[in-house]
């Protein structure tokens, strides 16, 4: 009986092809088909602007204002500060206690003095005896007498690993006596306080006359955040890094203009090429910068063609 009912149903649908269209039309009649409300897809409490024609213009204006505020906030310069003096610092080398990892370490130094952070280049395969010989010029704010230094191992596929760190006091003989300090300073890390090795720093201090304002960096403020893994005794802290002002490069001198082509030069080549027009000889001489040898070669090629 089931097969008979199924065959009769298929036969009726075949005989009445408009049955499917009528069912589809009934579905459409039951659906909600009209214009979308004005608050469709809007957050709660936000009303649409008055006037249908000005809706898109108002949205575009709000988007432009938001973009302008975001752009201006990113271009905001850091506040200027007064410097008590200038510290010429050379990060020479380090002798570390242990090489962490399966391969030789690639150490680099990150140093924070006041609100500025400086980095050395990476000493690839430096392991426990890296050498940088990096010289930086630091402006020392009033009241700052120490610097914080960290040594990282540069990693390719993971965060850079903190190897050692130290807080180093600027010696009084450097600040007040004007002497040059060339000392080794102990480093702390996993091995303990002062047991991770030593680092060699060379310091020389120049006091400023009066309160010298250190200007903000030109252009946009570059910011780099230090990695924050928990390694050793304490986690590292993300700090903004302000790059040193770019040193203006001298502009290249314009190339010297070739000497002008004289009638004597044209007459000299005219004797070699009597059939050649004077204007052509002059043009070839100007194109070759007054070089008669090169002009002769070009004129020979013209005569052969």
UniProtKB/TrEMBL annotation:
The keyword Metal-binding does not apply. Signal peptide: none annotated. It holds the Pfam family C2. CDD domains: C2_Tollip. GO terms for cellular component: cytoplasm. Keywords: Autophagy, Immunity, Inflammatory response, Innate immunity. The keyword Transport does not apply. This is Toll-interacting protein. Residues 15-25 have a biased composition (Polar residues). Gene3D superfamilies: C2 domain (2.60.40.150), DNA helicase RuvA subunit, C-terminal domain (1.10.8.10). Residues 261-304 form the CUE domain. GO terms for biological process: autophagy; innate immune response; ubiquitin-dependent protein catabolic process. Residues 1-60 are annotated as: Disordered. It comes from the Eukaryota. InterPro entries: C2_dom (IPR000008), C2_domain_sf (IPR035892), CUE (IPR003892), Tollip_C2 (IPR037301), UBA-like_sf (IPR009060). Belongs to the tollip family. GO terms for molecular function: ubiquitin binding; ubiquitin conjugating enzyme binding. Residues 61-185 form the C2 domain.
């Amino acid at each position: 009986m089931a097969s008979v009912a199924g065959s009769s149903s298929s036969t009726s649908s075949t005989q009445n092809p408009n049955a499917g269209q009528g069912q589809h039309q009934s579905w459409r009649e039951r659906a909600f088909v009209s214009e979308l409300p004005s608050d469709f897809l809007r957050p709660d409490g936000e009303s649409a602007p008055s006037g249908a024609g000005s809706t898109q213009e108002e949205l575009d204006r709000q988007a432009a204002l938001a973009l302008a505020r975001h752009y201006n906030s990113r271009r905001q310069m850091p506040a200027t500060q007064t410097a008590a003096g200038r510290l010429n610092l050379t990060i020479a080398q380090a002798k570390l206690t242990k090489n962490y990892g399966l391969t030789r370490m690639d150490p680099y130094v990150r140093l924070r003095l006041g609100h500025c952070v400086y980095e050395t280049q990476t000493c690839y395969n430096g392991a426990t005896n890296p050498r940088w010989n990096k010289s930086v010029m630091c402006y020392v704010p009033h009241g700052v007498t120490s610097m914080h230094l960290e040594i990282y191992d540069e990693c390719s596929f993971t965060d850079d690993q903190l190897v050692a760190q130290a807080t180093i006091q600027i010696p009084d003989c450097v600040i007040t006596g004007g002497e040059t300090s060339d000392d080794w300073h102990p480093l702390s890390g996993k091995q303990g306080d002062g047991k991770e090795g030593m680092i060699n720093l060379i310091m020389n201090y120049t006091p400023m006359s009066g309160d010298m304002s250190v200007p903000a960096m030109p252009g946009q403020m570059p910011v780099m955040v230090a990695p924050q893994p928990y390694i050793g005794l304490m986690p590292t802290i993300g700090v903004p890094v302000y790059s040193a002002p770019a040193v203006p490069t001298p502009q290249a001198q314009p190339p010297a203009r070739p000497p002008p082509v004289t009638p004597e030069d044209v007459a000299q080549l005219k004797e070699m090429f009597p059939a050649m027009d004077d204007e052509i000889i002059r043009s070839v001489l100007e194109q070759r910068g007054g070089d008669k040898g090169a002009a002769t070669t070009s004129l020979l090629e013209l005569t052969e063609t």
